[in-house]
Amino acid sequence: MLAAGVGRRLGDASLPPKVLLRFGGETLLERHAAILRHCGITRIDLIVGYRAPEVEAEIARIGARDLIFTRFNPDYEEAAIVSLWHLGETFSAGEPVIFMDGDVLYDHRMMERLIASPHPNCFLMDRDTEEGEDPVKLCLRDGRLVDFHKRPEIAHDWWGEWIGFSRFDPAIAARIAQATARIVEAGRRDALYEDAFREVVVAAPPGAFGVEDVTGLPWVEIDFPEDLKKAETEVLPSLEPLPEGSGSATLRRGAGA
Known about the structure:
Layout: E1 22-23, E2 26-27, H1 28-38, E3 44-48, H2 52-61, E4 68-72, H3 80-85, H4 88-91, E5 97-100, E6 104-106, H5 108-116, E7 122-126, E8 137-141, E9 144-149, E10 158-168, H6 170-185, H7 194-203, E11 210-213, E12 219-221, H8 225-238
């Protein structure tokens, strides 16, 4: 899970790291931990940087030291691909990986659907899209994923928005780690981290990646001030509560989020 950035686009230096933003009395990190425990995840590798001691304190407060293991990115003011690079060990550990952006408020059914997907390599997609360069686009042709980027280059029939969550099998996860390392070590530390994902997607054989359509389920990635308002007024009231006493073990120890 990526959670190292400063969050400058929110335009308020008084705000905490985005995983510590509170909605309905709970931080995003607290919500992530509850949902992932519910889904059977037993380890979260969390990249921290900006105001990292506050994140560490929140992990202790919610009693998640047994679940969340932090990795510090000293270059957290650089592009997020550097944080992804710091997850190289997790991506190369020979285990399936759930990848997450930490700044998303979302319904737990999205994560359940990702973990239950028959596709070992899978992206969550919302078909209710907004035009422009900011959305990361999952581009499909003849029902297959052919491109993945904010600025796709390969011809496609249509696209949906990626919500920032993915699942990768061990082989694909290792290839992403290798692609990330090549980009960073080549000095492209300002690249989009999606560049590493895209390199692996377009090089894979047809059908290697699937998508799970979560259109209609509430979520918001919190990048801009208007996203804070949407989170409070639209998304939070629409979230389905977690079932009490639930839990599964679809993915166990070694799953990196």
